[in-house]
Structure formats: structure tokens, C-alpha cells
Amino acid sequence: MLNSYGPIVIFFIIAAAFPIVTLWVMKFIRPKFIPTPEKVMPYECGITPESDARGRYTVRFYIVAILFVIFDVETIFLFPWAVQFQVLGLFGLVEMMVFLGILIVGYIWLWKRGALEWI
Amino acid sequence: MSTVQASDFICILPQIILSGFAILVMVFEPFVPAARRVMLGWFALFAVASAGAALAWTSTLPGTAFGGSVEASFFSIFFMALFLLVAALCLLGSFDYLARDHVQHGEYYALILMATVGMCFMASSTELILVFLGLEISSISTYILAGFKRQDALSNESALKYFLLGSFATAFFLYGIAFVYGLSGTTNLTALAERIHAQSSPPIMLWVALLLMFIGLAFKVSTAPFHVWTPDVYQGAPAPVTAFLSVGPKAAAFAVMLRVFLVTFAGEGAVLFWLLWISAALTMIIGNLGALAQTNVKRMLAYSAIAHAGYVLVGLATGGEEGSASVMFYLLVYALMNVGAFLLIAHLAGTGEHWTNIEDFRGLGFERPGVAACLTALMLSLGGFPTTAGFLGKFYLFRAAVGAGLTGLTVIAVVTSVISVYYYLRLVVVMYMQEGTPQAPSAPMPWPLRVALAVCVAGIFLLGLFPGNVLTLAHLAAMPLP
Which ipTM value was assigned to this complex? Predict the structure, then answer.
């Protein structure tokens, strides 16, 4: 049983060794790093950075993002069903309608609760 | 796909009803004006009652469904009935609490129903993946419930702690399942047992898998050394929620433990036995000694809940039909007394739960004799006094343990439960023998809460004096377990 884990162990060793060895070898090959203001600046397609990347943005986006995730997952579930529609038949259709029904209920709920309003 | 039949759905009808009603409660919530939200609570209670009726019907049609991943047996029905009872009691105790603390939202009732669905699946499933899903459904619902008082810092702390540590622990459980699958190629508990017993010498990896699964479940039932979250979470969560999560998820995790450890991994007796032995001893000692030092009633009951998990572990270490039956009987008794105690404290603590120190109950025995008598009965039962169910529950557990030759563990159990009498009685002493007026404003007790408490207290004495019928049921439920 344990033998079947052997390749995984080897994989982990190689995965860990690869960056270590590369960085160590590069130390001898690459030219010496001299920091200048241009070099340590965050890279934004050659344009001078506009502001701090850790800026604050409004919490309203959070709700939008969460809603997006929910309905995004819904679509992901629709795809395999659509591909296998012939095989799954009536059972698949009913099952999918139940799933969509629950999500629509969620949609009604969040609409009524005002989650879609941009206050 | 075509193998799904109507009988499969009948087998999980209680869960379907609970889920359906939970969704309905959520939809109705925004349409119901805030002043009448308690109606949603009654609706949820109706859902629990319907699920109970469905359960009664399902119990006449035992069998497995969905390709052997869910079963309806005496075992699952015993536990599901227990969960429905706990849900109903907590709902009854929540109506006026939520209104008093200005958190009367319909989501509360929907989450209680969803958590119950998860727990039912934990008890009825014979498939590790489904057990895990049930664990997650019940856990996520209770994480939210713990932080239901959004304006309250303690409640938020409780939810965050419970969520972070809880999700960490479920990851352990899932990792254990992954190892089991890697070793045997199946997650079905029945098939798993056959494949494990077929091997002459179990691989060491199986013990790793067992340990990982044990850690995940030990967190849920809060046994030492995975108990550190319990006092903070139980203290911060709204008291009716504490009543729910100190009983429901705990009993569900014990159901999984019984099924997985005593049936599927019965062959690993020696390793498992010492794991349970050490865990039980540690839990009883830490729980009972920890409770001695508490000044807050909710924290004290949290440590007492840890100690009670230790007593149940004694039954698990015993194993066999005796051990399993006494575990189930004890879980029922524990549910009644713990839910009762927390609901009573939810009422006595007053708005915002300001008065939860033991000293705040001074003179309660003279001001409100009925309430004090109830609390005394619950404390005596928790301490294990004769004529109460707490005594008989412990008696059966310890008798089974002695019968199986676990004398050392039983001695620890008895000594620690004698220690526990001190802190239970301290509350009684404060109520009856110290001068003063109770701190909390003495609002009249709302009648739904009265009903819930009456059920708890009556149940304690009924089970304490006439345990025969329920004990027979517990034995029937434990019969398929070895």
C-alpha cells in the first residue's frame, strides 16, 4: 500500500528542490543586483503606479461579489447537466428544476431584503 | 440514475420536510412585518412537528436508500427523534428571548431547521461523504447562530472562534476520510467494514486515518484536549443557541462515533480503546476541575458539558450493546437537562444577558420559588442525584463500564462526578441560602418557555423513575451495533 505513495513523495522532493536549486545556481550566474528607485517600483506595464495597492474600497462590492459567486456556481452546475441532458432524462430535469427553484427563492429573498439596491 | 425510486425519498422524508420548511421560512421572512416575526417561529415549530410525524411513518419502513448511503433504522430514528425534540424545545425557548433582545429575525428559525437537517443526516447516513456533508450543514448553521446577536461583541467573538476552530477540525475529519478511501477504495461504511476485516494485518495508515477522524469528531463533542473553544463559544452565543449547540451537534457527532468507531472499525479495538480511554479520563478531569473555578453560570455549564462528554466517552470505550445503549440513553437525558438549564438561564439573565454570574442568582429561591425549584431540579440531575434521570444515565454508563472490566476508568468517572456535585450545588446554595435580591428584573415567564421547561423537568423525573420504555428503545437501537 505504502509503495503507491512513493511517486508522490518523489514529486514533493522534486517540487521543493527545483526552486532551491534554481535560486542557488542563479546566485552565481546573474549580474549583481543594484537597487534603483525604478527597479524596486511595482511593475504596472511601465506606467508609474498611481496609488497604494492596499487602498480601501466600499463594502458594497462585497455583497455584489458574493451574489456573483452564487449565481456563477449555478451556471457551472447547469453546464454538465446540459451536456448530459439526453442521458439524465426526466430525472435530471426535475432535479435541476428543484436546484433552480431553491436558487430563485434565494433571489426573491435577497431582492426583497434590498441587497440589490445600491444605497 | 434510473435506480432512484419513490421509497428512497420516503426514507429521507423528515429531512426533506425540514429543508423545505427552512427554505419557506427564509422566503416568508422579508414579507412578514418585524412585529409578527414570531409567527415564523411557530411555523418552524410546525415544521419540526411534521418532520416528527414523517419520522413516525418512516420508522415503519426500515431499510436503506440511495444505493445504501442513507438508512432508516432504529439507530437513526432514535437519534433523529432526539434532534427533533431538541429543536422543538429550543424553538419554544427562543420566541420571547429573540423579541426581548431585539434579534427577532426569521433566519434564526430557518438556521435551526437547517442545522437539524444536517444532524439528521449525520445520524442516518452510512456513507462517509454524506456524514461529512451533514457535519458541514449543521456546523455552518450553528456558526451563524452563535453570532446571531450582531451588535454584541461577545457573540461575534463566539461565532468567529467557533467558525475558525470548527472549520479546522472538520478539515481533519475530511482528511481522515481521504485516508480511509485511499486505503480501501470506498467510503461506504458497510463495504468499508468488510474490506478492513478482510485484511489480515491492518496498515499503520489506518490508525492515522482513525486518529484524524477522531480529532475532527472530538472537537465537535468538545473532549479534552480539543475543548478549549467551548467556554468562550458557550458564553458568547445567545443562551437558547447555546442550549441547541451544546446538545444537538454533540449528540450527532456521538452518533457518528458510535457508527464509525464501534461498527466499522471494530477490528481496531486495542488502538481505539486506549484512544477513547485516555480521552475520556482527561475530559472528565479537565471538565470537572475547570467548572470549579467558574463564576459565570454559562461558563460553568460549558465546563460541565465537557465533563458530560467525558462520561459518554466512557460508554464508547465500553462498547458492545450495553455500552452503546447506555450512551444513547445518556444523550437523551443530557439533552433534556442541558437544554432546560440553558433556557432557564436565558430567561433569568435578563435583557442583553447582563446577569449571568452565579452571585446574581442570590435570593432567587425566595423571590421566585417556582423558577428556583426548576433550576434546582436540573442542577441535581446534572450532578447525578437519585430519582433524577441524571443519576440513572450515569448508573447505566458506569455499570456497563464495570461489566466490561473498565474499573480504573469508572473510578475516575465516579470521583470526578462527586467533585461535580460541588459546583452544581453552589448555584443551589446561592439561590436558597444567601441573602439578597436577584439582580435580574423578574419578568413573568412566557408560556412557550414554561412548556419547554415543563417538558425538560418532567422528562428528567419520568426517565429517572420509569426508564424502562426508553431504555428498551435504546437497546433496540443499539442492537445492530455489536
Answer: 0.70
